[in-house]
Amino acid sequence: MKIDFFKDEQIVSDNYFGLCDDEDESSKTPAYVDTNPGNKDRWIADVRNISGKSIGFAAVDNKIEIIRDDGSMENRCDAMLHNDDYIIFVELKVQGKDWIKHAVEEQLQTTIDIFKSCHDIRQFRRRIAYACNKRHPAFAVSHKEYMQRFRKRNDVRLIIGCSILLKA
C-alpha cells in the first residue's frame, strides 16, 4: 500500500520556529509547528531555516496511519520537514533515560523504511533524521559510531539534538 507522507503538509515560511508534541497519550494529537517564540518553553526542537526557502511540515505519528499485518499500528516518527533540497525526519521526546534506541531504531528507522518504499528519497540532496529530547538537548557522550552506522544503512544522516538547521 502506497502512503502519501505529504498529503496534509503545512507550509512554514518563518525562519525560526518550534516543533511541539504535547504529552497527551489519551488524546493522541499529532506534532505541530509553533511560530511564536514566546511559547519556546513548549518547544521540543527549534528549527532555524536559513535556506531562503519555505519548508513543508507534515505530522506523521497520530496523523498518518501505518498498519502492521497483525492490524496494530506501526511505530512512526513524529514529523517530517522538507523542501526541494531537504528531507528531515524528526522524533520528539520528553524522556529521562533509555530513549535513543527506541527513537532511532524503532521510530525513525521504521518511518524511513516505509517512506523509501513509497517515495524516492534520493530526490532530496540532504537527508537527515533528528532524535530530539527536550530533557537532553545536548549530549556529553558522543554517539559518532552509532550515527555512522545509521548513515551507512540508510544514506540518511542522524543527528541527536534539539536544534535543527536548514542551510542554503
The count of strands amounts to 10
- Percentage of helical residues? 10-25%
- Stretches where pLDDT falls below 50 for ≥5 residues? none
Strand order of the largest sheet: 1-5-6-7-8-9
| Tally of distinct domains | 1
Mean pLDDT: 92
In oligomeric terms, what are we looking at? Answer: single chain
Structure notes:
With about 170 residues, the chain is of the alpha/beta class. The protein has one domain. Helix content is about 20%, strand content about 30%. The longest helix is centred in the middle third of the chain and has 19 residues. The radius of gyration is 15 Å and the shape is globular. The protein starts with 9 loop residues before the first strand and ends with a strand.
Which secondary structure elements does this structure contain, and how are they paired or packed?
Elements: E1 10-12, E2 16-20, E3 32-34, E4 45-49, E5 55-59, E6 79-82, E7 86-93, H1 100-118, E8 126-133, H2 144-154, E9 157-160, E10 163-166
Parallel strand pairs: 4-10, 7-8, 8-9
Antiparallel strand pairs: 1-5, 2-3, 2-4, 5-6, 6-7
